Amino acid sequence: MITAGVDIGSITAKAAVLKEGEVLAVSVGFTGYNAAQAGMKVLAEALAEAGVAMEGVDAVAATGYGRRSLPVAGTIVTEITCHAAGVHLLHPRIRTLVDIGGQDSKAILMGDDGKVKNFVMNDKCAAGTGRFLEVMARALEVDLDSFGELSQRAERAARISNLCTVFAESEVISLIAAGEERENIIAGIHEAIGSRVFAMINRLGYKEPIMMTGGVAKNKGVVAALERQLGCPIEISPYAQCMGAIGAAVVAREK
Amino acid sequence: MNARTDEKERKKIKAVKKMKEIMTFYYIDAKTASETGKKVAWITSGGPVEPLIAMDVIPVYPENHGAMIGAAKMGVELCEKAEAMGYSGDLCSYARSDIACATVNGGPIGGLPRPDMLVCCNNICGTVLKWYEIQARYFNCPLFILDTPFCHTSFSAEAKRYVRRQIDEYITFLEDVCKKPFDRDRMAEVGRLSIEGQRLWQAVLDTTINRPAPMTAFDAFFHLALIVTLRGTQQAVDYYRLLLDEMNERVREGVGAVDEEKYRLLWDNLPIWYRTKWLSDKFAAHGACLVADTYTSAWCSSLKYMNEDDFLESMAEGYTRIYLNIGVDEMARTVIAMIDKYGADGLVMHSNRSCKPYSLGQYDIRSIVERERGVPTLIIEADMCDERNFAEAQIEGRIDAFMEMMAAKGSA
Ligand code: SF4
After folding, report:
1. CA atoms of B340 and B328, how far apart (whole Å)
2. What's the DSSP call for residue A156?
3. Subunit contact B397:A203, Cβ cutoff 8 A
4. What ipTM was assigned to the predicted interfaces of this complex?
5. Which of B347, B359, B388, B394 to mutate to test the interface with A (most CBs of A within 10 A)?
6. What are phi and psi of B270, to 5 degrees?
7. Which residue pairs from B217-221 have beta carbons closer than 8 angstroms and sit at least 24 positions apart in sequence?
8. Of the residues A201, B200, B259, B306, which has the fewest C-beta atoms closer than 10 A?
9. Do A229 and A124 fall within a single domain?
C-alpha cells in the first residue's frame, strides 16, 4: 500500500510518500500565500522522487495549519497526532517528542502504542519558539545558522533573565552595550529558550527517551541547553522537519 | 420539512423565547426607571442582590452587559476606546468595555441606565474595586463595598463576623439612598425566592447527568442570565421551573443536545462570548458535549451555606465562599466533584486573559485533576470579550488534536 502525507505549515509545506511503512521520499517547499498550491507542489515533487504516479497512491492525509485546503486529502488530521505517528514509525522507543517550530512549540507524551497520551502547546508567545532566536539574531547582527556553533565557543553563558522576547531583546542590547562577548550572549539566549521549553515539558510530565524535531532542533546550542536542564540526552531525527508529513502518511494508511 | 430540520427543531430549547422576552422587559424597565421613579443600582455579578430587590431597587449588572457586548461582537471597539482613554490592555475586558461604554452609551442596547448607587463585592476579584470607584466618580453616585476576605483554606469565625457586620452597614446604606426603612419581612420573602431560584437552577444544570445530556454548557451560558440578574424574584423561579420541565421532558424522550454524544467534557472559566456558536459547533462535530461548567454553577454553589429561614445571617458565608474566592485546592476539589457527578471524560479550560482570579491556578488544577482522575485537559487561550485575543487556527488545532487524542484513547 502506498500512502502520502502533506503537512502545510505557516512557513513551509512538507510531503512524504510511504510504502508499507518505509519512507520512499520527502519534499519541502515554502507555503507562500496559496496553501493548496504549495501542498500540491510538494506532493508532486515527493511523488516524482519516489517514482510513483498520483493514481498509484492509495490514500492521502493532510495536516498542519493548512490541512483543510488540500483538495486530494481523504483524511484531515492535526500535527499532534501526525508527529506522534511519524515518530512511532521511525523511532518506536521514543516516549516524549518536543517540536520547536518557527511559530509555536509543542511537547507530546506518547504511550507504548505510539498514541498521544497528552500534549502541551505554546502558540501565543514567541519566547520558546524559533521566532525568539530570529529576533535575537537580528539584534546581534549574526546569521541565525551560525548560532549553534558560536554558542559552543562561549566561555560562560550571559544571564538573560527575561523570558519575554520584547524584554529579552532590550536585555541583549544592554549586554552588547556593556561589552559582553557575543558568544556568551548567544549561549545565554540558548539557556533562556531552553528553560522556557523545559518549563513547558515539565508541565506535561515527560518520559524518556526524548526526541526533538522542528527547525530549532538543528541548533546544537538549544539542544545542549535543554539537555542540561533535563539531565538526559535528546535524540534528533534525520527527518526532523518532515515528521508531520511522514506521520500523516501513516495515519492515511490506518484510516 | 425533512428529517434533518425536524431533528433541529426538536433540539431547539423552547424556553429561549420566554427568556428573551423577560430580558427585554427587564432592560426596558431598567432603562425607564428614571421615568417610573424607581432607583437603579449597578452591582457586581457575585454581589448581594437580594437586599436591593427587597428595597424595590432595579439591579443592573455591568458584567451581564459585558457579556452582551461580547456576544454582539462589540467588545473590541469598546476595549480600544478604553485603551485610548488610557486604560491598560491588560485590564479585564468587562471593565474596559463598561468604562468606555458609559461615556458613549454604546453597545447593543445603547448603554446601561444611569445608576443611583453602586454595589461592589470583591468576592469575584480585585478589579471590580477600582472599576466601581471609577464609575462612582464618573456618575457621582454613592458606592457600597462589601469586602469578603479570601478563603485560602477556611472561613474563620472572625471573617464571618466581619462580613456579617458589613451587611448591616449595607442595609443602612440602602435606607439612606432610598430614603425608606428596610422591610425585614419582605427581605425574608426575597431570600426564600433567591434560594428557591438557585435550587431550580442547580436542578436544571443537573439534568445533564443524564446520557445523552439534554442541554450543554453553551445553553447554560445563555439561560444563566436570570439567576444573575433576577435572583430573588418570582419571575426567575417561574422561569427555571419552566426550563426544568422542558429539560426533564427531553430526558424522558431521550433528546440529546449533541448528535451521538460520544464524549462528555467539563468547561472551566467564563464563556468566550463572541465565539459560543463556533465553539459549540466545533465540539459537537466531534460528538463532544460540554455537560457542565464551573462558571454557571457558581450561582448555586453557595446553597450549602444558605439558610432560607435566616437569609441575612447565612448570606455572609454564602457570598464569601464562592468559587472565585477560595484556594486552588478547594477549587480542584470542586472540579473533581463535578467530573464525578457529571461523568466527564475531559476538562476544557479557557485560560482567560481578562479574568486573572479565574485563570491563575488552572495549571495546578489541571495537574491535580490529571493525577486524581486521569482525566485529560485541553487549554484554550482566549478572552471572554476581547476578540483580539482569539486565534482561530491555533484554537481549532488544539481542539482537533485533543479530540483526536480522546478518540485514540477510546479505541485503545
Ligand atoms: S476580572 Fe474576572 S471576575 Fe473580575 S470582573 Fe473581570 S471577568 Fe469578572
Report:
1. 18
2. S
3. no
4. 0.79
5. B394
6. -65, 155
7. B217/B267, B217/B271, B217/B290, B217/B291, B217/B292, B217/B293, B217/B295, B217/B296, B218/B271, B218/B276, B218/B279, B218/B280, B218/B290, B219/B13, B219/B257, B220/B292, B220/B293, B220/B296, B221/B271, B221/B276, B221/B293, B221/B295, B221/B296
8. B259
9. yes
How many structural domains are present in chain B?
1
Residue B72 carries which side chain, given as an amino acid letter? A
Q: Residue A116 and residue B404: Cβ atoms within 8 Å? A: yes
Domain containing A32 equals: 1-91+237-255
Taking the CA of residue A236 and the nearest CA in chain B, the distance in Å comes to 23
> pLDDT truncated to tens, each residue of chain B (412 aa)?
566 777 778 889 999 999 999 999 999 999 999 999 999 999 999 999 999 999 999 999 999 999 999 999 999 999 999 999 999 999 999 999 999 999 999 899 999 999 999 999 999 999 999 999 999 999 999 999 999 999 999 899 999 999 999 999 999 999 999 999 999 999 999 999 999 999 999 999 999 999 999 999 999 999 999 999 999 999 999 999 999 999 999 999 999 999 999 999 999 999 999 999 999 999 999 999 999 999 999 999 999 999 989 999 999 999 999 999 999 999 999 999 999 999 999 999 999 999 999 999 999 999 999 999 999 999 999 999 999 999 998 899 999 999 999 998 876 4
Give pTM, 2 decimals: 0.88
CA of A81 to nearest chain B CA: how many angstroms apart?
Answer: 7
- Cell numbers placing B385: 470579550
A143 and A210 inside one domain: yes
